[in-house]
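Page 37, continued from 36.
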């Protein structure tokens, strides 16, 4: 795999190999393990951009292939606002990438922005409100604000305000974005947003394949989940209510949310490629 040269300690990221987890709390402590600091932000961004690493014919057994993932993680752990705008400038490219790195970006960029904290809120707010940006990138930014509210509780009120105000704009035909904004508010248990959420559904402004009003009410504890039939198959576990979409924020629910997001991402990518060929 041909790539550019990187100085130490950034070059150490090319030795980590395939990540074992997407959960930010389980990431290696790159700063302690490598000695990476704010002065290395330009090199970390170069690694994210490195086309030699992000090859269309990847060798996932080559540790270097995973360098960009470790680079954006290190940027998050640096908690330096100087990395926010450069990452936002690259977000569509990273999410649109056809190899497995695109799915890692989908899952991890919200954590990266969330880790950076309060100083990231103004550029994230501006990006989310800009209708010229790609829809799936704006969804990712909304999720970043949700993650920030969880990681840095002192930012919760401000993050909720940004998410709510964006939903209040009643942006025409932003059905998927509205659905994910509602999901962000539901995950944060912002029950005071329920009148606005109900209005969005009443005015048919939400993609209900992502979330519907019953899902919202169940997650807020305002409605009982429907009974789930129990089907037994030889050699397979019995289905339980916790495995239903949005009946509770369990690991199964999180998996379903990720699946829904990935499906939407793939549909959007296919549509864009089709349009390019026309």
């Amino acid at each position: 795999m041909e790539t550019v040269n990187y100085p130490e300690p950034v070059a150490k990221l090319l030795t980590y190999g395939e990540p074992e987890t997407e959960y930010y709390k389980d990431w290696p402590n790159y700063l302690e393990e490598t000695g990476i600091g704010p002065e290395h932000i330009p090199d970390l961004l170069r690694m994210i951009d490195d086309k030699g690493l992000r090859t269309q014919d990847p060798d996932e057994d080559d540790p270097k292939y995973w360098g960009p993932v470790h680079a954006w993680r290190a940027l998050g752990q640096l908690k330096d606002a100087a990395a926010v705008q450069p990452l936002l400038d690259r977000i569509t490219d990273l999410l649109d990438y056809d190899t497995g790195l695109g799915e890692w970006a989908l899952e991890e960029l919200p954590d990266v922005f969330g880790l950076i904290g309060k100083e990231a809120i103004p550029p994230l707010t501006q990006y989310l409100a800009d209708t010229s940006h790609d829809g799936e990138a704006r969804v990712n930014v909304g999720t970043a604000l949700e993650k920030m509210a969880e990681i840095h509780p002192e930012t919760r009120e401000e993050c909720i305000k940004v998410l709510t105000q964006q939903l209040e704009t009643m942006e025409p035909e932003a059905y998927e974005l509205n659905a994910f904004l509602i999901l962000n508010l539901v995950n944060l248990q912002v029950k005071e947003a329920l009148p606005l959420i109900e209005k969005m559904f009443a005015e048919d402004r939400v993609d209900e394949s992502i979330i519907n009003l019953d899902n919202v009410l169940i997650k807020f504890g305002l409605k009982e989940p429907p009974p789930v039939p129990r089907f037994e198959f030889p050699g397979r576990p019995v289905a339980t209510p916790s495995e239903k979409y949005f009946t509770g924020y369990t690991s199964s629910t999180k998996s379903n949310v990720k699946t829904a997001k990935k499906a939407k991402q793939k549909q959007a990518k296919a549509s864009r490629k089709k349009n390019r060929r026309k």
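The domain at 10-277 is CATH 1.25.10 (Leucine-rich Repeat Variant). Flag for discussion at group meeting. The chain has one domain: 10-277.
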